[in-house]
Design a protein that fits this description.
This protein has 181 residues and is an alpha+beta fold. Helix content is 15%, strand content 54%. The chain folds into 2 domains: 2-63, Laminin (Ribbon), CATH 2.10.25; 67-180, Lipocalin. The chain has one helix spanning 2-29, and strands at 44-46, 49-51, 56-57, 63-64, 71-79, 85-95, 99-108, 111-123, 126-129, 132-134, 137-146, 149-159, 165-180. The strands form 3 sheets. It has an 8-stranded antiparallel barrel with strand order 5-6-7-8-9-11-12-13. Strands 1-2 form a two-stranded antiparallel sheet. The protein starts with a helix and ends with a strand.
């Protein structure tokens, strides 16, 4: 009888040992994806990637978002069906972390025709410019950056009385390439 009890106790001890060993080995094999990731500027590592705070981007949150946009862009603006004109856009930081200014300098016959400054906030690959509303006039602008190519969509609508759209609706698009940062 003692030997049966001995064998039961030995078998239970062996099973407990293997169960504990399996749990320890399994948890030791679990890799911490964030152990080698260093996130800067208040970023936090999640599943091996940095989740950057507003105003920062990049693999380790080291790049300020505004630097991707700032610079001078040369291109052309076309409005409705009229021939395009040479245009320049300058994007600059107004205030940290994400408030930007966009200056449009349009030229006709080698002279400055329009100098328009827009104000907006970076959101992904766009600079969001608030829509402008005035009595009988509205303006909607979208500024998008794709690598070093800039697109500015500008829609102006002039209204008659009772919010009836007048024939003075225009859509302009600027397409430009970055010259400098």
């Amino acid at each position: 009888m003692i030997s049966m009890k001995f064998w039961k106790l030995t078998l239970l001890s062996a099973l407990a040992f293997f169960a504990i060993s399996t749990i320890v080995l399994h948890s030791a094999c679990t890799v911490d994806n964030c152990s080698d990731v260093k996130c800067l500027n208040g970023g936090a590592c999640i599943d091996g990637f940095c989740n950057c705070p507003s105003g920062y981007e990049g693999a380790n949150c080291s790049q300020q978002s505004y630097t991707r946009f700032t610079g001078k862009y040369a291109g052309n603006t076309g409005c409705d069906l009229t021939p395009s004109i040479f245009d320049t856009a300058i994007i600059y930081l107004e205030s940290l972390p994400l408030n930007m200014g966009v200056v449009l300098l349009s030229h006709k016959n080698d002279t400055l025709w329009r100098n328009d400054t827009l104000h907006g906030t970076i959101n992904g690959s766009n600079i969001v410019v608030a829509d402008y509303y005035a009595p009988r006039f509205s303006r909607h602008i979208v500024v998008t950056l794709d690598n070093s190519k800039l697109n500015i969509f500008d829609q102006e609508v002039h209204l008659q009385g009772n919010n009836v759209v007048d024939t003075n609706k225009s859509i302009c698009n600027f397409y430009g390439q970055r010259l400098s940062q």
